[in-house]
Amino acid sequence: MDELFPNAEIERPPPRAGNGGDTAAAKKKKREKPNRPGESTPVDLEAAAAQILIDDSSDLELWYGIPKAVASSVAVGSRVYVPLRNKRAVGTVIGIGTRADAGEGDFQLKPLGGLVDDAPVFTKGLLKLADWVADYYCANRDAVMRSVLPAAVRGDRHSAQSQLFASIAQKPKNEEIDTIARRAPRQASILRELIEYGEPVPVTQFGAGATKPLRGLEEKGWVKLEDKAINRDPTADEEFVATSALKLTATQEPAMEVIRDAIRAPDGEAKPVLLYGVTGSGKTELYLQAIEEVVEKGKSALVMVPEIALTPQTVHRFKGRFAECDTEVAVLHSHLSQGERFDEWRKIRDGRARIAVGPRSAVFAPFENLGLIVVDEEHEPSYKQDITPRYNARDIAVVRAHLEKCAVVLGSATPCLESWSNVESGKYDLARLDERIDDRELPLIRIVDMRREHRKGSGPAILSERLRTALDQRLERGEQSILFLNRRGFASSLVCPACGYVCECSHCSVSLTFHRSADRLICHVCGFQRVGPRKCPECGDPAIRLAGYGTERAEEIFKSVYPDARIARVDADTMKRKNQLRETLDAFKRQKIDMLIGTQMIAKGLHFPNVTLVGILNADISLHVGDFRSGERTFQLLTQVAGRAGRGELKGEVIVQTHTPQSPAIQFSRHHDFLGFSEQELLFRKQFDYPPFLHAVQIMCRSSNERLAEFTLESLHKRLVPRLGEIAIVGEPAPATLAKAAGQFRFQLLLRGNSARTMGRVVREVLREMNVPEDVTITIDVDPMTIG
Prior knowledge:
Layout: H1 23-31, E1 45-54, E2 61-67, E3 79-84, E4 87-98, E5 114-115, H2 124-136, H3 141-148, H4 151-154, E6 162-168, H5 174-183, H6 185-197, E7 201-202, H7 211-219, E8 223-229, H8 252-264, E9 273-277, H9 283-296, E10 300-304, H10 311-321, E11 328-331, H11 338-349, E12 353-358, E13 370-376, H12 393-404, E14 407-412, H13 417-424, E15 429-433, E16 444-449, H14 450-456, H15 465-477, E17 480-484, E18 493-495, E19 513-515, E20 520-522, E21 529-530, E22 545-547, H16 551-561, E23 567-570, H17 580-589, E24 595-598, E25 611-616, H18 630-642, E26 653-658, H19 664-670, H20 674-687, E27 695-703, H21 706-724, E28 728-730, E29 734-741, E30 744-753, H22 756-769, E31 776-782
Parallel strand pairs: 9-14, 9-15, 10-12, 10-13, 11-12, 13-14, 16-26, 17-24, 17-25, 23-24, 25-26
Antiparallel strand pairs: 1-2, 1-4, 3-4, 3-5, 6-7, 6-8, 18-22, 19-20, 20-21, 27-30, 27-31, 28-30, 29-30
Helix pairs in contact: 2-3, 2-12, 5-6, 6-7, 8-9, 18-19, 21-22
């Protein structure tokens, strides 16, 4: 993690004269024919030139002349149109220089074709951050820029939306309106309505065909028509209850002081702060008060949450706290429409919003004057992007805070071991909250050994006697329960008991999951679907049956056991409609739902005071995975889910159903003992040279040709060993845990060393020297969250 704090300012290596600085770009640049001396050019050029990163071109950088007409508007970060092979392309200005900077030779540069936006859309800080991301995560700069700038903003299709408004320009007398009514009754009717409104009204308010009579009234001087920009606010129809700062407890006050010290530290001197607080200890209140201090200083704040499911609740809290002041809160996430996302992004870029809330992609919010970045539930793997660029937003938040010289707070009840290791080494400061608010007790966690339950053979296999009794008690008392199962669908597989055949995806090396609502077997990797066979395709036995269970089957079982209970399910299959998740959680908050069954969408961050029971139906799903992080992930998930219980005045209880009750992850989570778990897990990691003691780089090679993928990775391995052998541990090529996905065979290679950047640069150098077959794709994942 020391690489997240560069000792020197990040600089882009200067490109070769007249091109983008790499072989591919150089070839493309040669094909671009600049205007030679003597050729006519219709554009009057400035002496300056602009270096442009062309969109969707694998890092093609070209120099263009700046026309005098736009010279005062073109700046680093501007989006511009440029001529490219007799077509118009779009690019980003990444440098301003002279014609001499464009390269040697006596030729006339082609001129820019104009500006896409009136003002630069990339801040200098974001451009510098994009350079760091591209270098550290071994990604093309163009791919990083696509992540930094949302699709809604990149093009020119989505622009600020305006609407025609009408207002009274001169108030007529009643007899004048009567005169108008004799010749134009529609005009008179609209005029009366406008007088009654007393303020500008959208023209659409008067129904279809209203524009023509309004134009007539405008010509007569009675009405004023004007276009006004409107904001497509995704929370416009919601009500927010204004709140004020709470008095901090004796436990919260010292933690708050650590955060205040970071905010008030001289530029560049603040360390990242890890806020380690048990569930329900009031971390959000510290975030709110820290942001209040930052906003009062005239700066901005960014709040990151791991799941979109948490965004509405977080937005409610923040908009409620800042409702009585002029501080707007913007929302950024992928569930917004393109228009909404454009408006929210612009709200930040124009300085109208001083606070932004959102998941992973919000780390690139275009703030100019950041004072604080908050990363809530910083341990969550959802902060890691699984497509290029494969960045971890938590780590980027730390880097951005370092580059922009602002404070950063990472909060969690179960910090990731990388962050905890940084505390122990002194790179991070620690703020602790060891107690729940108002001395509320942590929930009592009971472990149920499902092996014994199966031997009893009574009731559904998914429901133990202890859990059933606990649910009965909650229903009698009018309390609510959460039932957690991190597997969707009805049954996890279709199995033949006679020959052992399992219905697998024809494109992936996984079994197909049965979804009863769709009456289909569905692959959760590639989406392939098929109708389930009536008999075994291998032996013809008609006894082929469903095995395992997911949230869909759990819902059916609990509805049959509790027919009078109000039960809802939250997973990717049910929460497809926009705002459906928010509506379901709101109904649960208003106690219109007794039991909420769901996947990890409901596992963390949510606050429901009437929930007194959490049932974890199968704690082993994430435990028995071939990944060195499986124990850590299981501990975090169980602790976070357990933290949903007993957050109000009533005491909470958690029942964990498992087939491996002796697992350290389960036993430590039973006692809410993060310190004990981290100590044991870090000893294991150190013994086997796993992160956080060494950085990891995973190389994945995939192809529709199994032998070709394997051979290519073996060739890469042979080239890497002599170059990395003394500075890194180079693993052996092996099939990935998911050996086939979407028709692609996958092989992986794991590197471990002290410097991720060094390993990444060596890998890229070797790949440039290799002739990688066209049918083979190689990806590099720096600091992977999962192996394989």
